[in-house]
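Example 4.3 (complexes with small molecules)
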Amino acid sequence: MSDTAIININGEAFEFPIITGSENEKAIDIKKLRGLTGGVTTIDPGYKNTGSCQSAITFLNGEEGVLRYRGYAIEDLAEKADFLEVAYALIFGDLPSKPQLEKFENDIKDNSLLDVDLRKILEAFPKSAHPMGVLASLTSALTAFNPTSVDVSSDEAMYNAIVKIMGKFPVLVAWTMRKNKGLPLNYGDNSLGYVENLLQMMFSKPNETYKINPIIKDALDKLLILHADHEQNCSTSTVRIVGSSHAGLFASLSAGISALWGPLHGGANQAVLEMLDAILQDGGDTAKYMAKAKDKSDPFRLMGFGHRVYKNFDPRAKIIKVAAKEVLDDLGVDDPILEIAKGLEQEALKDPYFVDRKLYPNVDFYSGIIYRAMGIPTEMFTVMFALGRLPGWIAQWKEMRARKEPIGRPRQIYIGENLRAFKNIENR
Ligand code: CMC
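Answer. The structure with carboxymethyl coenzyme *A bound is encoded below.
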């Protein structure tokens, strides 16, 4: 392939460099397009063909179903690392040494208290509030309680903001769930690891000792790792673009949480479970729902299927499918929903509609089944996704600031009215 691209506009040829990534991905560098052509721009709704940045964090090959963080295969990380090691690798560039990990973990623990006044904000929400809305609000509110985390112009200030949010976020996650369940708000136990502590904060009751189930802990660790980053998806792009205006880390993360909430993105895990439940309640007729998903006049989509980037099995879904079976077997849970899920998957994998469009199960198809077996309420599923994605958002935000990326500001093609005369209200 030549290392330049020629674009012909009205008979005039303009040449643009082609840049190559470390996995041989090619991109036409159109940074100078408007300047050279006198204002011609590109249009790409949903950014299906647009690279928004150069990034050294996550490599994804959707055609072959490959996902790597900092060069490490997701399969290895899910099997051999724990969530904090993966978070460190994403944020700081490589897996930590023992002392590096210890320092990171201790600094996070030192920052795991929340200002008691934050409770007042939480208490003002109705019990019925969706936990994602609460989480986004509380994350944004953290800025007010930690104003120094907004200015991250030094490495030290950046590090402090990172360990603060890594320490406080699990408490927010636990509190949003406890508030909905009417349980007293608690703090963690610094003698526990990150994931154990999260489980303890979520599930402990004031009148009994909470015993951590190692099977649940391992499965949750794996789920968080699998969700930890996914390059320039909707919420990550949101975090980067909000941060590109030099808004603070916590405000940018809050925007990312809102972006993740939607059912086409992170909200799909809740939507999948609700869909599987609805199919079960409706007699378990998967064929009926397959037909609905294929019917273009019906808005129903098979939730947990399809992906913007993967046109092959989502490698995360493969790992989660195995983990779901292990957790259910180990816990002795016989969930009829798993059978519905397997049935839908089998039918979809041989159905020409899904095969032709390369629609495979995605990360969210099986994750909800595990969360449910763990006793996590359905509307908390996307909150768990947000906790997993936190290090990825932080890493991407940090990279965006380190690369001194310009403020994100796409162009448009205006298709509205041309200049017209103003009419006084009585003439309209
Ligand atoms: N069920 C039925 N048809 C589908 C589905 C589905 N789940 N997904 C895509 N299609 C069809 C779609 O109708 C279109 O058909 P046609 O070419 O005939 O018009 C074709 O497949 C391409 O779909 P698209 O909407 O143009 O693809 P996209 O890249 O814009 O959307 C997606 C990707 C994930 C939003 C979409 O597949 C979807 O809505 N899936 C269900 C929601 C879901 O599971 N989301 C979680 C994504 S993974 C977690 C994450 O990263 O957030």
